[in-house]
Design brief:
Elements: E1 11-12, E2 15-18, E3 23-28, E4 44-50, E5 63-66, E6 68-71, E7 76-81, E8 90-100, E9 103-115
Parallel strand pairs: 1-9, 2-9
Antiparallel strand pairs: 3-7, 4-5, 4-8, 6-7, 8-9
């Protein structure tokens, strides 16, 4: 895959982060149908945190983190979420987008739980 494509099927996955800790999460983005990793060459990967699935990206509570693509051919990227953004135990929402030129495609989303540690 050289760019986000209408055939991409986003999939749901629950994430958990410890409270008051910096989170460095490395993940591999794979096609949920074929199981093969996406080729992230030339793409930007964004990780969003929001109050709910319906919170608009433009809402002041929504936070966008630009991920570091660490292994583009195998779909691997890393996001760094600072402890300042994991202070309250709660369940919110996250979404991971692939961005190529002006096209944005959600490829993973789900509940994000910050748990007391």
């Amino acid at each position: 895959m050289s760019s986000p494509d209408a055939s991409l099927v986003p999939y749901w996955q629950r994430l958990t982060f410890p409270q008051n800790k910096d989170v460095d999460m490395t993940f591999t983005l794979t096609d949920p149908v074929t199981g093969l990793p996406y080729n992230l060459t030339g793409m930007t990967v964004n990780f969003w945190t929001k109050l709910s699935r319906n919170t608009p990206d433009s809402d002041p509570s929504a936070i966008k983190y630009v991920c570091t693509v660490t292994a583009p051919l195998t779909g691997q990227a890393t996001v760094n979420v600072p402890a300042a953004n994991t202070t309250v135990p709660s369940v919110t929402w996250y979404r991971i987008d692939l961005v190529s030129s002006s096209e944005v495609k959600a490829v993973r989303f789900g509940p994000l739980q910050v748990f007391a540690s």
